[in-house]
């Protein structure tokens, strides 16, 4: 019952957040210089042409009315039409989003798979040289702009040591993308690096906290081996706060994919967004922002729920 | 610092009869002492001081022309008259590193501080108000966090090219969200303390409670948040040129040097990307290390 109430409250919160996001995106749409009309008709459009365009598009109505229209079209899954690609924004995003998800989910999985054991190892060897070295490396990894890291990766692994292609898989279907797995290596490394840095820190802190708990002492006194304590008890208990942070990390992952896709020419949503920015294709830009934000809100929601499933101690309202 | 201590007095122990206000000061002193023992944090501080001197005093000792192009001296490798070589229009790379660093550090510091100020005001107001006001204000923060900053910056770059002040404003506006959450949490723990309740009972206003009691008591949280915020802002500044929002020539910043050197790097001119890249990494690392050290020293809950 408490779980159900929590779920309902949490979903309602997410809906409110998404509504606020639509307001922000709507405001951005109207912050455009000369409005959307100037953007599409170009700098040489006459005032008359602009007025006509505004009338056709319903842009001459009061803002709250426009917002209601905007919400209504959104609910129909209509994100408008691209200025330059002559295609529905929803269709464009539907083609590109799965590819971006493949890249971000792969990066997240690889990142976590490395970060969790690394953080635990650091905690076990606290204040020893290994700990310092990994801490320093994670600081460096966190502080490196993704595009600089990507450039170094390309220079080293495609030019110096020609092991991987410098271009991400170009296939249209996900099957083709996975078939070209060699080409996924560098983009995934670029996307996962800062995640390893951040999450190994979280895991280190969480493990340290758990290692000082009474149950560890009890288990040790009972004769359990260090390895068994670590993996059977500490691991599970330390994972919970890390999973909670995963939700907050979703926007960072998407932000990273923006740069990674552009660097490795991977035709996902990030690249779509990038080319839309170059051509001032505002419907595409704002449609992408909206979809990414909704994906983030849903991601955070899932992480919260997952955290409750993993750890029954987490009570509603504590986070 | 030791000169302040009376002989035989243990640091941090208040001698009898001394006013309670001294407890706060010696608490800070203890924290600073803990900070000084953190080698990584002290190294971070040294790196920041080095780069501040390098960028702001360096040009006085090593003067170069960063406005005019010298087309007879383009793409020179490091060595000789140009310690770090020259770029595609003949600017001395070492001088450019100082010149660009000024903008990076200035914008990063200002944007980080601006973000902390906005976050502090928002977070303390929300936490203090409580109830549905708090809920509404925090949903706005959730919404802001859901929109990745890089996407917003790229949208802005499609709309306009701001100057340095505009850049600081935009970066501040996209990055105040995390500090607002931290300060709100801090406010929640403070607002039901007896001294706040007493202040309210004797007719003190809400704004007085926030300004005179909540914020001064959250100062360590705010300082720690600000340090991390500056680190993130300097990193964000590095993305700005890459996203097409950068400062306009003849001015530049480390991110601008890095992104304009990208193509040069493919043709082997590594000296155009390695120095600005390393500078960014070092400074961001340094601020993060300082933040870590301050957080541990002041025993503040915070990120990472």
Helix/strand layout:
The complex is a heterodimer of chains A (319) and B (304).
Chain A: H1 2-31, H2 35-41, H3 47-56, H4 63-75, H5 89-124, H6 129-143, H7 146-160, H8 174-179, H9 185-211, H10 214-221, H11 226-263, H12 269-278, H13 282-310
Chain B: H1 21-37, H2 39-56, H3 58-61, H4 93-129, H5 131-146, H6 149-159, H7 164-174, H8 177-190, H9 194-201, H10 206-217, H11 219-242, H12 254-260, H13 262-266, H14 274-298
What do these coordinates show?
The complex is a heterodimer of chains A (319) and B (304). Chain A is mainly α and 319 residues long. Chain A folds into 2 domains: 61 residues, no CATH class; 213 residues, MetI-like (MetI-like fold, Orthogonal Bundle). Helices cover 76% and strands 0% of the residues of chain A. Chain A contains 13 helices and no strands. In chain A, α5 crosses α9, α9 packs antiparallel against α11 and α11 runs antiparallel to α13. Chain A is globular. The relative contact order of chain A is 0.14. Chain B is an all-alpha fold and 304 residues long. Chain B has a domain of 207 residues: Orthogonal Bundle (MetI-like fold). Chain B contains 14 helices and no strands. The relative contact order of chain B is 0.15. The N terminus of chain B is likely disordered. Chains A and B meet through α1, α6, α7, α9 and α11 of A and α5, α6, α11, α12 and α13 of B.
């Amino acid at each position: 019952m408490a779980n159900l109430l929590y779920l309902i409250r949490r979903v309602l919160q997410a809906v409110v957040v998404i509504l606020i996001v639509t307001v922000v995106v709507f405001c951005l749409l109207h912050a455009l210089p000369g409005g959307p009309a100037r953007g599409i008709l170009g700098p040489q459009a006459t005032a008359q042409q602009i007025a006509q365009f505004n009338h056709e598009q319903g842009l001459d109505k009061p803002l709250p009315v426009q917002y209601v229209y905007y919400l209504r079209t959104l609910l129909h899954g209509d994100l408008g039409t691209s200025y330059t690609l002559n295609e529905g924004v929803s269709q464009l995003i539907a083609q590109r989003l799965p590819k971006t998800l493949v890249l971000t989910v792969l990066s997240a999985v690889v990142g976590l798979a490395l970060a969790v054991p690394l953080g635990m190892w650091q905690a076990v060897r606290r204040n020893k040289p290994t700990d310092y070295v990994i801490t320093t490396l994670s600081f460096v990894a966190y502080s490196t702009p993704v595009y600089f890291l990507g450039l170094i990766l390309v220079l080293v692994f495609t030019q110096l040591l020609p092991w991987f292609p410098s271009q991400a898989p170009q296939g249209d279907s996900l099957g083709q993308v996975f078939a070209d797995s060699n080409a996924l290596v560098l983009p995934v490394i670029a996307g996962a690096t800062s995640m390893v840095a951040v999450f190994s820190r979280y895991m280190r802190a969480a493990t340290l906290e758990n290692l000082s708990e009474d149950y560890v002492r009890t288990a040790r006194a009972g004769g359990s081996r260090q390895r068994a304590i670590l993996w059977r008890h500490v691991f599970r208990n330390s994972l919970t706060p890390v999973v909670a942070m995963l939700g907050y990390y979703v926007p960072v992952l998407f932000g990273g994919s923006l740069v990674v896709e552009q660097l490795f020419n991977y035709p996902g949503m990030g690249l779509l967004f990038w080319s839309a920015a170059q051509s001032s294709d505002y419907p595409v830009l704002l449609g992408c922002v909206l979809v990414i934000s909704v994906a983030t809100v849903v991601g955070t929601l899932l992480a919260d729920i997952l955290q409750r499933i993993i750890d029954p101690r987490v009570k509603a309202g504590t986070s | 610092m030791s000169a302040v201590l009376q002989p035989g007095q243990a640091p941090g122990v208040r001698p009898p009869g001394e006013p309670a206000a001294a407890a706060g000061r010696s608490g800070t002193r203890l924290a600073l002492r803990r900070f000084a023992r953190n080698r990584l944090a002290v190294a971070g501080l040294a790196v920041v001081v080095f780069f501040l001197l390098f960028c702001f005093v360096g040009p006085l000792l090593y003067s170069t022309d960063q406005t005019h192009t010298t087309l007879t001296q383009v793409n020179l490798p490091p060595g000789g008259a140009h310690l770090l070589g020259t770029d595609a229009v003949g600017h001395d790379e070492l001088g450019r590193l100082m010149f660009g660093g000024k903008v990076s550090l200035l914008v990063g510091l200002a944007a980080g501080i601006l973000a902390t100020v906005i976050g502090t005001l928002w977070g303390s107001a929300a936490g203090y108000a409580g109830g549905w006001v708090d809920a509404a204000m925090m949903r706005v923060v959730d919404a802001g966090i859901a929109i990745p900053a890089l996407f917003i910056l790229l949208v802005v770059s499609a709309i306009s090219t701001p100057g340095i002040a505009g850049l600081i404003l935009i970066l501040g506006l996209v990055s105040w969200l995390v500090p607002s959450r931290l300060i709100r949490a801090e406010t929640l723990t403070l607002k039901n303390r007896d001294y706040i309740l007493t202040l309210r009972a004797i007719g003190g206003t809400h704004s007085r409670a926030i300004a005179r009691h909540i914020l001064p008591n959250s100062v360590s949280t705010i300082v720690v948040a600000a340090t991390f915020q500056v680190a993130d802002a300097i990193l964000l500044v590095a993305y700005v040129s890459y996203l097409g929002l950068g400062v306009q020539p003849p001015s530049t910043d480390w991110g601008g040097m890095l992104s304009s050197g990208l193509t040069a790097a493919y043709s082997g001119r590594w000296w155009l990307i390695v120095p600005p890249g390393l500078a960014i990494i070092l400074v961001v690392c340094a601020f993060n290390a300082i933040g870590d050290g301050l957080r541990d020293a002041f025993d503040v809950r915070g990120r990472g």
